[in-house]
Amino acid sequence: MNCIFCKIISEAIPSDKVYEDERMIIIKDINPQTKIHLLMIPKSHYSNIVEMTEAQAVELGLCLKTIGEISNSLGLKEGFRLVSNKGTNGCQSVEHLHFHIMGGELLSERMG
Ligand code: AMP
Ligand code: ZN
Fold first, then answer.
1. Model pTM score
2. In whole numbers, what is the pLDDT of the chain averaged over residues?
């Protein structure tokens, strides 16, 4: 499949990985927009939450729970922001669901 995140998951292309389990990887964003800018990428390929199956929704819930459990060890003790862009208006550029995990500093109150 011609998906850059699937290639990162299979290690066909390198990434700066900070966490991995059976459901997901967390890597450093190649173009960080905040002091800490990570990407949580479920191993299952689907474009966005509109496309997701019920089973993938359960998996995603567990992935989010894990982010919470390991957030301190990722340097996010003071808080963080989760963002998942969808489609044209959401400015999604990679068609494999992912969550941006942003923090390491006080973020802007503006999100739009
Ligand atoms: P989005 O625009 O929400 O689809 O987010 C895609 C993100 O993937 C962007 O923040 C990119 O900087 C990031 N990105 C693209 N290619 C790579 C890569 N090879 N390694 C790490 N991050 C990447
Ligand atoms: Zn993919």
1. 0.98
2. 98
